[in-house]
Amino acid sequence: MSNTHDTESTATHAVDEPREVRRTHRKSYAAGVPAVAVALKRGVEQMGAVRTAQTLIKLNQRDGFDCPGCAWPETPGHRKHAEFCENGAKAVAEEATRRAVTPEFFAAHSVDDLRTRSGYWLSQQGRLAHPMYLGSGDTHYRPLSWDEADAVIADELAAMDSPDEAVFYTSGRTSNEAAFLYQLFARSLGTNNLPDCSNMCHESSGAALGASIGIGKGSVTVPDLEAADLILIAGQNPGTNHPRMLATLEKAKHNGARIVAINPLPEAGLMRFKDPQKVGGVIGAGTKLADDFLQVRLGSDMALFRGVARLLRDAERAAPGTVFDQQFLDESCAGVEEYLDLLDDVDLDEVVEITGVTRAEIDELARAVATSRRIVLCWAMGLTQHRHGVATIAEGTNVLLLRGMIGRVGAGLCPVRGHSNVQGDRTMGIFEKMPESFLAAQDAEFGITSPREHGYDTVAAITAMAAGKVRVFVGMGGNFVSASPDTDATADALRRCALTVHVSTKLNESHLVTGRRALILPTLGRTDRDVIDGVAQRVSVEDSMSAVHLSRGSLPPVSSHLRSEVAIICDLATRVLGTAHPVPWQELKRDYDRIRDRIERVVPGFDDFNIRVRRSDGFVLPHPPRDTRSFDTPNGKANFALHPLEWVDVPAGRLILQTLRSHDQYNTTVYGHDDRYRGISGNRHIVMVNPDDIASLGLRAGQLVDIVSEFDGEAGVEERRVRGFEVVPYDTPRGNAAAYYPETNPLVPLGSVARESNTPVSKAVVIRLEPAASA
Ligand SMILES: Nc1nc2c(c(=O)[nH]1)N[C@H]1C(S)=C(S)[C@@H](COP(=O)(O)OP(=O)(O)OC[C@H]3O[C@@H](n4cnc5c(=O)[nH]c(N)nc54)[C@H](O)[C@@H]3O)O[C@H]1N2
Ligand SMILES: Nc1nc2c(c(=O)[nH]1)N[C@H]1C(S)=C(S)[C@@H](COP(=O)(O)OP(=O)(O)OC[C@H]3O[C@@H](n4cnc5c(=O)[nH]c(N)nc54)[C@H](O)[C@@H]3O)O[C@H]1N2
Ligand SMILES: [Mo]
Predict the structure, then answer these.
(1) Burial class (CB in 10 A: 0-12, 13-18, 19+), 605
(2) Could you tell me the pLDDT band of residue 64, with boundaries at 50, 70 and 90?
(3) What fold, for 101-197+421-625?
């Protein structure tokens, strides 16, 4: 076998450019035959037929690689032959493509030229194949050697006045081993500036759960979901973003679960599922998933949860001992009396007004919560990316606590994570404020002194860059400029750095918005074979339910110049910190088992890491509330949160905009222009608006508008604008609109963040629509 794969010619790859918007019927079900067809088509386009077959066979299998798509767990014990979904297959095709972006490509395209291309075009050009350098004033990236690249970074780091002039960003695909070494390098250098995508994602979940139950991770497993009798899914679109979750929900359903979807949009995946891996899913009508659909207004979930809590309290008072889990409340919880007092203020008519759902629907939800014996609450970005995201998740937690739904089979809290290893990265220390226990253990293990002052999170890092306080920005994966809020402000901030470095698999916008100098360092992905000194290496990842397992890529890399993330970090660290540094970087690089030995000695729960991770299905990390109903909070109890009730008002003549994912993208990576389940295709520059709002705002369907956001900043009302978006009538509540991320990120103000978690408020942007100048 050759060491690298034959690549396609280095010619530029044409893409389907956006066309006019096409509308078809919104789908009433997810998956089914079209999903399989789409998955295979994309695979063959990018990889060719043989590589497609070789790759999909290894996806999520015991000896294969972990899907780089989402963080939904593989089914323990009985993996299906093909444990993948349409969107997982697209993620794989995107990574395992035979197309390569070579030095010749960069010679043919100036940076200015590349800046005129869409993100979609950039990512479709293929895998980055060689380290590239852009010097001050250069028009084109040019190739350089890894040694030269490390020297550039080392020079800039050495020129800093303080280690805090460096920022080390991480996206959530980085393996446990690479993440551990990356934070170890940053802290050896002397900074906690470790922002990550989680700051924009589930940070609100971590903050809320940490305070309430003492651990920022979900408390359920897949078998719990399958055994649940009531599953609430709030602010999540699993049909698109976690398609394998639908199979779990279908199973739960067959076991008798009732599913309640809480969402402003009637998302297809929540309604009905046709499993493409089963005969019934191919020819039958599929399984009806959601029994109830509560079409709530944006940002009203906290009010809904509090309304339910009030109804639970009233029912308990009417018939004591029938609703609350009194024993659990007495033995394990604190703050319940104060919380019950807070519920005095709940006005259920007001809850109806805030949420936009009927009193009967709220009563029925409360009845279901009061009478079900095993309840799971699932959520994602629809709850976290709000100003009151932390309070909203804490409120949902309060409801479950009243019913004792923690540490019980078939019940619990289920924040559904995004990136495939975002949870593992945090476990490994990617966090600007890791607890003292972690830092102390790491210092003792390696004989270094980690800094104790907290570092920058994502928003703080942008603010610091804008203030000229950052010299070097390093991105371990991700697409910082496009994923962050306030695109123009973030771009200006990045341009103030002396050096921006991206360790990447694919070309993206962040390579084109650079500091004075810039580097692109191409790395291996999950699907690639990782061989160091002739020895095949494996990495580990942690899924959304705290299960850790191995992942091994098997495809020959697209070029012999790619290095693993581990190798990149270790070589850079050796260069910067010297061979006498107490961390044996080169020894760790040569054998990832040695990295795992160190992780075992620093991070709790990784005992016998190398042995247990080799078991089929790996192992599950400890979770005190789930395992033993114990709570690692200052008072040792599960704490009821006491936040004042908050929601989102719609100012007159304005709309509240949520920015979300289409069915045809992975975060900032656009796969195509087909938001299939929503029946919108051809073009992503659209805004979904309720037909009555279209009429009352004096607009018409199909009209082109500018979207202008309004934000009450420190210096008065700030406005931001994106131009030329088509108005699409859609079934969204009055006053609420929706448009795609990242096209609308320029509208999200940097100063608009969730309290406590500092997560950008991407799901509630105040906007007005203005007829486009050209219309
Ligand atoms: N194919 C694919 N898979 C992915 C991703 C991808 O881009 N593509 N991204 C990955 C990542 S990093 C993440 S974090 C996850 C994201 O997974 P999701 O959170 O499902 O992603 P979003 O598209 O942001 O969808 C938010 C959902 O919440 C709803 N919502 C918005 N605001 C509210 C609200 O106020 N209340 C309620 N109840 N609902 C609301 C929206 O209507 C939408 O259904 O998916 C991961 N998986
Ligand atoms: N308006 C708005 N903004 C949002 C959101 C939203 O809902 N609305 N969602 C937020 C959320 S939930 C998230 S998680 C962030 C996502 O933010 P990021 O994680 O920063 O963005 P991605 O688009 O996932 O990053 C894609 C890039 O990662 C690189 N990459 C892919 N795989 C690998 C790998 O294995 N190794 C390395 N080194 N690089 C790799 C590729 O070069 C690719 O171009 O965006 C956030 N931004
Ligand atoms: Mo995410």
Answers:
(1) middle
(2) confident
(3) Rossmann fold (3.40.50)
Which range (129-138, 271-280, 495-504, 702-711) has the least confidence? Answer: 271-280
Query: Which letter does DSSP use for residue 136 in this model?
Result: T
Contacting residues for 367 by C-beta, under 8 A, at least 6 apart: none
β-pair type (142-143, 258-262) = unpaired
Distance 542 CA to ligand 1 centre (A): 20
Q: What do you get for the CA distance between the two ends of the chain, in Å?
A: 58
> How much is the pLDDT for 22?
87
State which of 72, 90, 263, 378 you would mutate to test the pocket of ligand 1, scoring each by most atoms of that ligand within 8 A of its C-beta. 263
Q: What residue ranges line ligand 2, CB within 6 angstroms?
A: 171-173, 197, 200-201, 381, 385, 418-419, 476-480, 483, 503-506, 508, 523, 525, 565, 659-660, 667-669, 741, 745, 748, 762
pLDDT at 279 over 60: no
Among 168-182, 546-560, 642-656, which stretch is predicted with the lowest mean pLDDT?
A: 546-560
Residue 12: the pLDDT is 76
CATH architecture of 203-415: 3-Layer(aba) Sandwich (3.40)
What mean pLDDT is reported for the chain? 93
The secondary structure of 677-728 as a DSSP string is GGTEES-S-EEEE-HHHHHHTT--TT-EEEEEEEEEETTEEEEEEEEEEEEE
Task: Name every protein residue with a CB atom under 6 angstroms from any ligand 1 atom.
Answer: 69-70, 87, 201, 234-237, 240-242, 262-265, 267, 296, 298-299, 301, 380-382, 386, 418-419, 658, 660-661, 665-667, 763
Ligand nearest to the CA of 293: 1
Which carries the bigger pLDDT value, residue 352 or residue 274?
352
User: Which single residue is written with the structure tokens 């629809």?
Assistant: 382
- Predicted local distance difference test score (pLDDT) of residue 733: 98
- Tens of pLDDT along 599-627? 999 999 999 999 999 998 899 999 999 99
DSSP for 548-615 reads EEEE---BPPS-TT-B-HHHHHHHHHHHHH-TTSSS-HHHHHH-HHHHHHHHHHHSTT-TTHHHHTTS
Closest CA to 585 of 603, 600, 566, 604: 566
pLDDT at residue 87, as a whole number: 79
Find the 264 Cα to ligand 3 centroid distance in Å.
Answer: 19
Question: Atom 4 of ligand 2 has which residue's CA nearest to it?
Answer: 483
Q: How far apart are CA 127 and CA 460, in angstroms?
A: 31
Report the separation in Å between the CA atom of 125 and the middle of ligand 2, taken as the mean of its atom positions.
18
- Which residue ranges make up each domain of the chain? 22-95, 101-197+421-625, 203-415, 655-771
Which residue owns the Cα nearest ligand 2 atom 46? 483
Q: How far is the CA of 375 from the centre of ligand 2 (A)?
A: 32
pLDDT in tens, 286-315: 778 889 999 999 999 999 999 999 999 999
Atom 47, ligand 1: which residue's CA is nearest?
A: 241
Residue nearest ligand 1's atom 19 by CA? 381
Give the model's pLDDT for residue 33.
Answer: 58
Rg (CA), the chain: 25
Q: Where does 655-771 sit in CATH, by number?
A: 2.40.40.20
Name the residues around ion ligand 3, CB cutoff 5 A. 201, 418
- Provide the pLDDT for residue 21: 87
More confident residue, 639 or 92: 639
Report the alpha-carbon distance of residue 220 to residue 231 in Å, rounded. 12
- Which sign, positive or negative, has the C-alpha torsion 80, 81, 83, 86? negative
Work out the average pLDDT over 82-108. Answer: 85
User: Which residue's CA is the nearest one to ligand 2's atom 14?
Assistant: 197
Burial of residue 734 (number of CB atoms within 10 Å: 0-12, 13-18, 19+): middle
Strands 166-170 and 472-476: parallel
